[in-house]
Known about the structure:
Layout: H1 11-14, H2 18-30, H3 34-43, E1 45-47, E2 69-76, E3 89-97, E4 104-109, E5 114-118, E6 124-129, H4 131-150, E7 156-160, H5 165-171, E8 175-179, E9 183-189, E10 198-202, E11 208-214, E12 217-221, H6 223-231, H7 240-260, H8 267-277, E13 281-284, H9 289-295, E14 304-308, E15 311-317, E16 321-326, H10 328-339, H11 343-349
Parallel strand pairs: 1-13, 2-7, 4-14
Antiparallel strand pairs: 2-3, 3-4, 5-6, 7-13, 8-12, 9-11, 10-11, 15-16
Helix pairs in contact: 2-3, 2-7, 2-8, 2-9, 3-8, 5-6, 5-8, 6-7, 10-11
Amino acid sequence: xxxGPRPRRRxxxxxxxxxxxxxTGSVAAVAGLHALSGRYESRVxxxxxxxxxxxxxxxxxxxxxxxxxxxxxxxxxxxTKGEPGxxxxxxxILVHIPAGTRHAYLISVPRDTYLPIATADGEPGRRDxxxxxxxxxxxxxxxxxxxxxxxxxxxxxxxxxxxxxxxLTDLVGGVDVxxxxxxVDRYRFLPEDxxxxxxxxxxxxxxSRRCVLFTAGKVHLDGKLAEYYVRQRxxxxxxxxxxxxxHQQYLRALAEKVADRNMLTDPRALDRLxxxxxxxxxxxxxxxxxxxxxxxxSLRPKDLTFMTLPIAENRDVAGVGxxxxxDAERCEELFAALRADRLDRYVDKYPPNDVSHGR
Length: 359
């Protein structure tokens, strides 16, 4: 449908709320707003997102709340509670929070990353795209898959739903991003009465249409235009990698906007943010949201470092399709640093993503 978003792609905005949501809970907790922080926790959805113990062992105690700890952010293509067959995980971000809990490293794992997928017994199985793990066994299977791949443990998975994302974006007055080069999304057709910048183009049937136009320089994005911005892939120099950078750029921009508007210290504004954002999250039944928020109370946008899983090559695999093959040597170096709680040394050697601007 012209100009309308395809539901399975709406996830591309949802991760932009996570930092704001965590900051919301942390500020409420540290400010002593007990009623508000309680309301925050009560609005978050609950489900069984962590793996059950298997015959070979596994988790028997509730995961920790203090650092160092690992969160797993899962953006789904459906209104899911993390159950098997409930959709694919279109975005996967591993968040490592060091012992001091004053920083966070966000590592994007592309959805087409080719990994051994955990079996029903929780053991490494045949390789497939990483998002197949979620489709086969929900959040627990995805957690097991990444635990094996990284050699570390996901302490708390968090599923983010697309519902209300546009409302949240508009709630903060939109965000500003800097674009390096003018780009036309020739796969995004706008209706004639659309208020957004456009350029002439043709659809697959050869009909004259208007396509979304992003001009170089500073651009203000409301909820709808932001969705268009983070969805674009074709027309960008590096396709999915540039799109991933846009996701991270927008995530940082939203978090900064929330902080700049002092929404986290204004009880009424904070209440609106809580109601708009908390309901978009599904967490494990045992996850103590307020305690975790208090642990992360010092995190601010400037404390976030954005990274992408090292990829060696793109390849077509029979029966699977186009996949992204991880760089084994770089990945081992990355996750060794994560396990040692020394990602600071890794980013000194391999500079992180610059999310101050996008393609």
